[in-house]
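R.M. (postdoc): so does anyone remember the format we settled on? I'll just put the structure tokens first.
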């Protein structure tokens, strides 16, 4: 009995330590992402494309630095939004007109803000400590608690992805209609190629698989609607 009690207390202590480390990394990630937000806002306000690119680079570097912290934090909601924000920053830096650059920066900013919001709510929608303790103390005949909670997380995450991609679809349509043909095609093709590259990874989470698959489908439809560029 004493041994079982000792093991249980040890497991709880380990989970509490893991939770503390996770929360610390979430805070560090939030700080970097907050800096990326301010730099993106500054880039959007610039009337010179080179100045806009300069601040976009600073935002991009800040998000890149937050990747490892986000991985430890474990907030996949934020990871997916920041991945899309990063993608749009890279495309903004490559864009050849101020209008296209600003449009992509605005899209990136939206995802950055969503990422910060997801981090703030991380304890509510994905508490590793809560899931593990519940799994240790609950017995369900067909599926254990951890499995059910994981399924609920996946469903909730997929719903968030679907909602986010509605905005992406509208934004992509706006780009196709307002940006010159070659730039619009290059923009969409870059996203399509990146999705294919991501989907080849064997260690991709279910959320990221779903995100990249749906993004690829939406982008394919947009590519089919872009006329041949002369």
């Amino acid at each position: 009995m004493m041994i079982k009690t000792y093991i249980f207390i040890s497991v709880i202590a380990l989970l509490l330590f893991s939770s503390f480390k996770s929360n610390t990394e979430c805070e560090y990630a939030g700080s970097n992402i907050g800096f990326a937000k301010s730099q993106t806002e500054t880039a959007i306000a610039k009337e010179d494309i080179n100045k806009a690119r300069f601040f976009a680079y600073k935002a991009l570097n800040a998000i890149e630095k937050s990747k490892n912290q986000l991985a430890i934090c474990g907030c996949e909601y934020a990871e997916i939004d920041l991945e899309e924000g990063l993608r749009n920053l890279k495309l903004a830096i490559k864009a050849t007109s101020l209008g296209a650059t600003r449009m992509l920066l605005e899209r990136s900013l939206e995802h950055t803000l969503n990422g910060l919001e997801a981090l703030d709510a991380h304890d509510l929608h994905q508490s590793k400590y809560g899931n593990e303790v519940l799994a240790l103390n609950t017995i369900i005949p067909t599926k254990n608690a951890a499995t059910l909670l994981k399924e609920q997380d996946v469903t909730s995450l997929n719903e968030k992805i679907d909602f986010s991609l509605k905005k992406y679809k509208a934004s992509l349509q706006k780009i196709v209609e307002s940006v010159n043909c070659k730039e619009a095609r290059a923009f969409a093709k870059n996203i399509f190629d990146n999705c294919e590259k991501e989907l080849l990874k064997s260690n991709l989470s279910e959320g990221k698989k779903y995100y990249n698959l749906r993004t690829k489908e939406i982008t394919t439809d947009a590519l089919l609607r872009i006329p041949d560029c002369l």
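R.M.: ...and that's the designed sequence above, right after the tokens. Also worth knowing: Residues 2-225 form one domain. DSSP finds nine helices and no strands in the chain.
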